[in-house]
Amino acid sequence: MFKNRIGTFISNIIAIGVAFLIAYTFRFGWETDDTFRNINDALVLSYLVLCYVAVFVFYRGSSVMGRRGLLHLFKDAFLTTLFVAGLFAAIVYMTHISESIPRLFFGYFFSLYFIFSLIFTGITHAILRSIQAHHKRQTVVFTDREDKKAVVKNLLKNGADDFEVIGVAELDSKGKSTFYRLKTEKPDKLASKAAEAGLVLIDPDELIYEFERDKSDAVTFLKRHNVNLVIIAVDHLDKERMANIIDIVGEMGIDSMVTLDSFAMETFDSKLEDFGTLEVVRFAPRIFSDMALFIKRVLDIVGALVGCIFTLLIGIFIAPAILIEDGGPVIFKQKRVGKNGKYFYIYKFRSMYNDAEERRKKLVNSGENEMDGLMFKMKDDPRITKVGRFIRKTSLDEFPQFFNVLKGDMSLVGTRPPMVDEYQQYSSHHKRRLSLKPGITGLWQTSGRSKITDFEEVVRLDCYYIDHWSVLFDVKILLMTVFAVITGKGSE
User: Fold this and answer.
1) Residue 492, domain member (yes or no)
2) Are 87 and 68 within one domain?
3) pLDDT confidence of 64, banded at 50, 70, 90?
4) What is the distance between the alpha carbons of residues 109 and 17, in angstroms, rounded to a whole number?
5) Which residues fall within 8 angstroms of residue 366, CB to CB, at 6 or more apart?
6) Which DSSP string do the residues of 243-259 spell out, in sequence order?
């Protein structure tokens, strides 16, 4: 992986240099005596390199080179170019040299940089793959799983690019093992010089796997053959047994690795990370990258700033209407439950009468709730004012929540924040819907919220959102929200 990262870094630095020279020539022409005499020329190039170094450190892209098809290379090159362009624009603006950089040069450079980054990175990775194809680490797998083929295929699909499984030691419940030699062959249709050189990516599902039982045991095989690595992938964790394997392998000077899925069920994500001075394995239904969460927070801040401005403008018209009809506060503040059970106060334009909370208790006790489960909802709710019906129908009552987003209590997109009395009745599986920040909008709101009457369905939608979350998914939900607000879908 280190070689892959270094190859990516060098390829992009070269791409920056080449793109800068060509863009400079296109815009200013090429005169040997005059080129780069202006200190700003060298300064701009330095800023570009600095921006890429910063992006390289914080954005890793696809780390497994063998799985990188053209689409992944294109995606990484595009996102890298986008991040460098954004960071560069911010730096030149803050250093007040933006006026000395023609926009045409800016366009030339980043267009060329994207193209050369894609080409040079693709060539570098093809060369590294070719080298690795002839210098793979000979690997033996220890496993107690019944499907040996599935274990090997999973390692080939998700593992590094510089190893080759040559044997599998099948462990039984009594601590004994049966050893199989493994040969993987390419189908005739895929056998080619390019494939042998590692220049063609072959899906592990298309390989032919032949397991041949060996007369010797795994330890004897390790002693007598060229083996560089042992991988332990087990379902039934026996610490003493695993330690024994690691000791035997280590005594021979062979490295060993234990897959993280050996420590947990398949339904959980796992990640090795630092915890102070300790190294720990973290398990969660879904583990998000720091970069993805950072991008989500940036989008939240930008969206919240715009939303807060609209809230103030809308409030100029809504506030008098609320005061005239019912008096009392314009903003309704209510205690809600946020991420992992953290309490916060949610803000809305008040759409109910001042004694709405007392009325709610009576309505709940009288069986007026139309929801099955812990939430309360009813059509033609008598607690809602005339102004309230309008601002609810148009979703204008939600706008003050942009201030919640700006504070960090909420996100633009997330799950619905429950009330305290709802939360106190939660079962264990209900709380998982609070593993991300609650949002102004979400799947429940864009799925016809007035038609959903089962609380478990709300939980299912929220958990589906968490399990499939991505920045693009948030953008999709925001667009669906705009459509739902315009059409009035589900806002009764």
Assistant:
1) no
2) yes
3) very low
4) 10
5) none
6) HHHHHHHHHTT-EEEE-
